[in-house]
Structure to design on (2010 residues):
């Protein structure tokens, strides 16, 4: 089985119980997450041979992050133990008119401070079929951006398919560069790009044209600007309140444009990781189905399911995602 | 006060916290439930003199099951201590597009392996007005089916009213017989039958006729097929997602057909036991109200309330159910 | 900065976990609340210099109540240690068709039994700009009613603005007087009155006229009846189920009548304290904005946010309330 | 089987988790206890037909207290629903040099305010073999003392054996009488008295004589002073720290004096209810064994086991207590 | 690195919180354990390349068991998905004079019912250096005993070192054979045997001789009786109460006898798995140290540390065990 | 009342439940602590007017730290909101032979990176009687050391008494200086020094002389080396295991040497903060008692009590500490 590699950061996530505000109770749920780690875990849950590449500190927190990845069957041989701390974030779950809230505490993390010779990409990509990165790691530090670029270049050079989720996070870009200074260069080495409308504008500088630009036009503009891309997936997340929204997406390649089914999300349990679940679903579908519109449907259904699962990770199986694709959303107890 | 007897199984129910998937946290909520025990507890909460008859092992798990029944005022003198284990089930609560999930672990339970002379029905039914059974116990083993049949026969012979909830569970019928091999024979001894449309087809072999068969026609077909029945209640559970649905039911006897009010369920807390709450509500209403349509309304409201209560048991009082029947669903804080 | 003083009771609130019924698990969430304390905490969270005046027992429970107020920055120098017990209440959170339920256990509390010389209002109101009371404390005992009246009189005499939330609680009025025997006298000393339609009828004896009396007419009637009032705010809480409802309000003074935006509440986390959050929002807005309709909008948005926060207290900042006023209810994660 | 009746109070017990101080976390363990209820539950756990007589309010708190008794098989038909509130107490578990701490909140409880005609002792004692009371209920109010006395008188008149545990609690005696004003009169109607050295002094006015009075002499003095007593048990609790101590007791009747084995308690989990476990053990042993020294050994072992069990109740079986009496304290896992 | 293989059962372990009795709270800690799995996890924590061979059901419970092993780095490719259920056990933690208590519920488990062709030992042992089994799996069923024997035979045939921990559990031997009918035959294929004194008697039929037989003599008797053994380790567990005891062991091979240091255990957190930690420590030490007495010291220290860790697994590193061996038991905070 | 000022860091402390290892469960207790904050909280619990001076980030984590201090009545006006993150540490509670373990994550904290003009010491010390610092903040960064020195200088210049707890933490000194390069200079400005034997060696370069140097000699050497000191307290912590140890201390000033009582600690609940509790006790005693040996006894008893309380803070009152000083360590329930 071909190997799938994700590169980026794994974070400790600290969240108060239920819908409480931060430190309302003297207790925090402590799990692991982070955009790229979320993709790796979901791919492993889909049964793919998956490896996660990152750096974590050589202490009990780093060891726990590795153990958690291992629990899902994610390969961890590519994880380097170095640096001083695991990045972490505090999450407060919103409700109704109160939005969820993230407080980042990732400065000085092992991956953010990793030098350029940290990873031996030739060895790490040996036998790999796919490399996934996101726009979050390049947002951390100049060196993390360079590491991401090096990974993509090495992959491209070996004929490994590269996917990238733009994942614009405005608060993270603080080292003096703007996303548009960095991301377009990275996208030169990408085959499958995932972006929201905001990502297109903030990371790629492709603002929606005035007035009623369609998704067809926007994705066409992306492919035109980045002709080496095989395809671009545009995620169409709608948000009505902290608990309610909808998910759909569209996919364009040179030959075609397709729009997915749209899922109403009426009771969101945890929206963090919803985009990562989409990315993993798309990667899985890309290699599992001949038909790219099926891959897209799989990805959207995977993301939809993620919203019902606590934590960053999409603990859903291929069978569960396909069950939803094929229409079983009745909610009857399965027994 | 006349005594109400339920016969069947009490199970240990193990569920992860909140909406988590199984074993996401190293903790399980551990309570007791099971279709027939649920009916007994609800009847006791309605103030009826109720007895539960089953077999549980002579260990701490069996003792805790008995203590829990006692807590609600259910009589436990008819419980025999025998066998090796209490059946149990794992429950994962779904959300939105992710359905709830049950993993049964009931093989070899005390009631499933109980020999035919375990219960002295003459003594157990002495002074009883009502016996309730369900189609779950007969699904376990040949001997459990025979025990259930013996209970119904003994009740019928003594003039005790017998109710049965068909409760089709496809995964449980594994001992070589199909429900249609067993349940029709049992229903011969029943006065009040409770069934869903699926139950009618799977347990009684009465499939909805092609196209648009009405509930009126289906219930008429049941009464025609089982002429000893006094009445049949058809439950009309609608499920839109793991959190949303609706409940209504209709009731037919020789003289009349009535359809209940329909309740929208917009925020289901725990749907397990919703059918059992209906059964208990119908039994309560049957003896409390001269008018059977009032009994039906009570039953549907009871089931509706159950969906808002965590656990298998319907911890609702007659006053609360009647409050809902008479229209107080405003949700204002009661103080 | 001018000082805001609230007078009334702080209670221990005991609630089972999640949506459980009382004592379903052997554990209770134990926090503090109570109408007037809720107003004080919200004012402090809005950054105002706030003081809470009450009596609590000289034991660990009273000490914890004071510590909790202090945590939010509420001044506690005006709290007298006396009496035998802190009042408490049990709260059961409803769901869907099952309403929430309060069991009061406040008899004999420190404030209910406090003698008339307990508080030195001249000292307590020195430097104060505002006094807030509610109709709950006067409901407890004759002496508590007299204490409340004395506070309002002292404030009025010093030129301190007085607000009062009628807060009718039928179950509390048990000492032989009806609210209409007590509250109108109190309102004589009030500048800003907050009431629901039910409050108008039960506390002020101003029943909605037959048929379709408008909110405009009702508030006009209140001002006519109590000419010393500067303004009256009428809260328009709608309740569809335990989880769903809507909030709006209107405000009338001598010169104008304005109606607020109406917020749908589709997933209520905790509705207790929603009215108190409105009162605090109105007091805050009254002094922060020249425009009273802006004050009203702030108050309604504050109340709306409170419904998403567990506990009695509205742990929301001015920035968060203004965010909602200005339309950010998209529910996207804030990161 | 003869019936055992205990009369007194059942309380709600609120305790922070583990060794935390009160309100360190916003959560309290909420269980039920109280000296006389503890005796009833332990007797029921020993398999005796036990009834508890008290008054509890007609609300959800009272209902939960009854349900909890029922769970252990204690009969609750003699419980009257009346009054305003269930008494409660806050418990903070000490550790090492920090003693445990109790904050009572029992004023105005249903039993403390119950009028003299609340209980029909003729009916309640019909068929009873034993009545147990304690010195705690008489400490609450004059009426509660009178109720206790009436119970003992009625029992004595019917030939029912009466036991009383003096249970001196200095903080509770606040209604104007001292224990020595009340308890000696009560003890006139008692057959089996249980007391500590402090109880003898504070409740009976029998102070240890100067210097080295022996337990033999003290118990002799008690029997001399109260000649109607059949026997007196003197509990000899030693306390070295919050976690460590020792238990032993001696028993004197007209014919003999015996001293029990002494148990070191090296890791006390919960010392509340240890004395009640002794009382229940003595009552059980009194009727189960011909030899009173065996009864005493059973009682001391029961109390010793209680110290290892969280909560007020002694959830230990006869087999477990006898196991300890017969020397199995090895601590090996029982499997 | 050579591979270490353990064969046996992994169980779900259900335990009430803290020192509570079973079902005192409606919550159970749900983790995984079982003698042989415990050895595998400890070996993986020591950094060895470890594989666990067993059968688990093809459901979510079986999947969680595998994920948990993976988390610690244990290889799970040798785990066969078959059968109906994962065995489980309930554990109640004792305290002081109350011993811990295990209620088994392992009947009909996947491994207990596995047919003889379930495992391909040639493949599983390919490249392996060590096989560990215990006397627990042979206690379950005749087929499980045969599977264990087959594993040992296959290992021996390939020159793989075989260790066996006798682990006598009287309650498990219920299929008609006694340990002495089965274990001696198994031990013929073992190189390193681990046994307690009770194991020697119950499993091997080697009762301590009358009077004061020494450990030297007993181990010599074992080696004499089973001449193919390289060595036998005798565990010397002392138990004073549920919380206190001591651990030491001795080791005999053809050439020498050595006795370990003895550790006082003054505050046992969890004694389950203490013996398995010893076994894993001995296996680790056997291959890590030239000197067998060092291996023994490592094993005893590992077991000692395990008693301070909640759960079945010994989550201790080589560095931590060696730290204890070399005398750092001061208990100062490591910072 | 004179004001007491402490300067240093407040940290978020993350600890797994009970005796679990880090990340054994996906939950962390999240409270606040840190050596100097601990002293401030304890002083406030003793009823002193206390102010804590530090820098915390302007986010929800910093806000919660301030709220927690406020809860205990600590003044927080001197806290500056700046920088990127609150320092934190992970704590694993040991047991028996397994020591507790701290993993620091304090790099880049608000106080560690604060520039020299962050605090206006003239304003902060206005009206102050006492300043307390520790050797932990100087260990963080060169700037933090300079801030501490500036604080001490400013205090000294104003005649404010200065105390310092050396608090050697080897792992923290990583910025290129050794404690002996920094601390002696700081101690020049100190009146009351607190140190352990290790502190004397590592921070002051005063190694115990060869062989049997007495505590008298060591403290004399400290006073000789730092003649501006009024007194030095030497803490004599003994540690036998993670749960057991002993506490005593001695105090030397120009005129006298006194040795405290020694407390056995047989069941340590939480040893973190034990030294800080001593420091606070000594500061309290210094101003409350004329007799310095009484101050020392108070300090040692305070530290002893702290070991029984979960969390960093010593939530003990003066009455409780004095209770222990005067000999009430019986452990009887206080009711």
């Amino acid at each position: 089985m071909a190997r799938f590699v994700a590169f980026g950061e794994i974070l400790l996530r600290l969240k108060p119980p239920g819908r409480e505000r931060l430190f309302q109770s003297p207790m925090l749920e402590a799990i692991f997450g982070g955009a790229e780690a979320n993709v790796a875990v979901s791919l492993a849950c889909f049964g793919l041979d998956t490896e996660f590449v990152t750096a974590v500190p050589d202490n009990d927190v780093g060891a726990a992050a590795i153990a958690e990845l291992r629990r899902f069957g994610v390969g961890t041989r590519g994880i380097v133990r170095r640096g001083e701390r695991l990045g972490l974030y505090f999450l407060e779950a919103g409700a109704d008119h109160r939005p969820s809230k993230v407080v980042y505490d990732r400065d000085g993390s092992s991956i953010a401070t990793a030098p350029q010779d940290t990873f031996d990409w030739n060895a790490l990509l040996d036998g790999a079929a796919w490399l996934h990165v996101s726009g979050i790691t390049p947002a951390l530090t100049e060196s993390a951006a360079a590491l991401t670029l090096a990974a993509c270049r090495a992959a491209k050079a070996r004929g490994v398919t590269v996917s990238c989720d733009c994942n614009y996070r405005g608060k993270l870009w603080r080292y003096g560069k703007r996303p548009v200074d960095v991301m377009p260069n990275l996208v030169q080495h990408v085959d499958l790009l995932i972006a929201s409308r905001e990502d297109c504008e903030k990371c790629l500088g492709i603002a929606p044209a005035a007035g009623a630009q369609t998704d067809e036009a926007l994705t066409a503009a992306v492919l035109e600007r980045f002709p080496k891309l095989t395809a671009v997936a545009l995620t169409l997340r709608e948000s009505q309140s902290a608990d309610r929204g909808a998910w759909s997406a569209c996919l364009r390649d040179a030959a075609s444009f397709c729009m997915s089914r749209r899922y109403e999300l009426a009771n969101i349990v945890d929206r963090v990781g919803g985009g990562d679940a989409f990315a993993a679903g798309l990667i899985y579908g890309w290699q599992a189905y001949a038909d790219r519109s099926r891959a897209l449907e799989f990805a959207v259904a995977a993301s939809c399911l993620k919203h019902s699962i606590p934590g960053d990770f999409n603990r859903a199986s291929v069978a569960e995602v396909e069950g939803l694709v094929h229409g079983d959303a009745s909610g009857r107890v399965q027994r």
